[in-house]
Amino acid sequence: MSAPRHRHLIWDWNGTLLDDLTLCIDVMNAMLDRRQLPRLDLARYHELFDFPVRAYYERLGFNPARDNFERLSIEFITGYEARRLESTLHRDSRRVLAAAAAAGLQQSILSAYRQETLREIVQHFGIATYFDHITGLDNIHAYSKVTLGQDLIRLLGIPPGDILLVGDTRHDLEVARELGVDCALIAAGHHPADRLRAGGGHVFPDLAAFAAAHGL
Ligand SMILES: [Mg+2]
């Protein structure tokens, strides 16, 4: 798989370009502490985190009868939003985006993150100019990215076979399959390499390895 095979890179945001792993664990631990539930460390987070988020919350021990999912979801997002600027881009994000642009690839972001906040944080890091489209949800709950992705591909007007989706979770692989686009997974985010490989994904340990394999 080399760069010229694809004309467009669709990037996932959280965990793929943005390194928000520690922040997600911290915010969730505060919620767990409030209810005296067992805390997360990285290994437990990697084991339990998945989409749909509702099932993940149940695995963490939240009692749906006492804490409804909508309320938990809002509590997490409020905690995350208050601290969102503590996260940084992954070490190689800027370099890889610049190299892909220099290689003539077009790039977009497809994220379950809220549209307005997504645009704002991408601008905050000064990387908005790399993207033709920045596509997030209009709603704060993490629904599937498939519908958004279908809209984005229609907008791009290029065949799905010319597109490579780059993500960090098994959900990204499922989305790519549903969209009919190729997928590369970076094991430096919300899912560990073994879980990504078990899903049948094409896995790279980090963005530098992804870039090297694609001649970027
Ligand atoms: Mg992600």
CATH superfamily of the largest domain: HAD superfamily/HAD-like
Give the CATH class of the largest domain: Alpha Beta
Largest sheet: 6 strands, parallel
The number of distinct β-strands equals: 8
Mean pLDDT, all residues: 93
Order of helices and strands: EEHHHHEHEHEHEHEHEH
Going by CATH, the architecture of the largest domain would be: 3-Layer(aba) Sandwich
The count of domains is 2
Shape: globular
**Could you list the spans in which at least 5 consecutive residues all have pLDDT below 50?**
none
Radius of gyration: 17 Å
Percentage of helical residues? 40-55%
What's the helix count?
A: 10
Enumerate the distinct ligands: magnesium ion
Can you walk me through this structure?
- With 216 residues, this protein is of the alpha/beta class.
- The protein contains ten helices and eight strands.
- It has helices at residues 21-34, 42-48, 53-59, 69-82, 93-102, 115-124, 146-156, 170-179, 193-198, 207-213; strands at residues 8-11, 18-19, 88-89, 106-114, 133-137, 163-167, 182-186, 203-204.
- The strands form two sheets. Strands 5-4-1-6-7-8 form a six-stranded parallel β-sheet, sandwiched between helices.
- Helix 1 packs across helix 4 and helix 7 (146-156) packs across helix 8 (170-179).
- The site of magnesium ion (MG) has 9 residues, from loops.
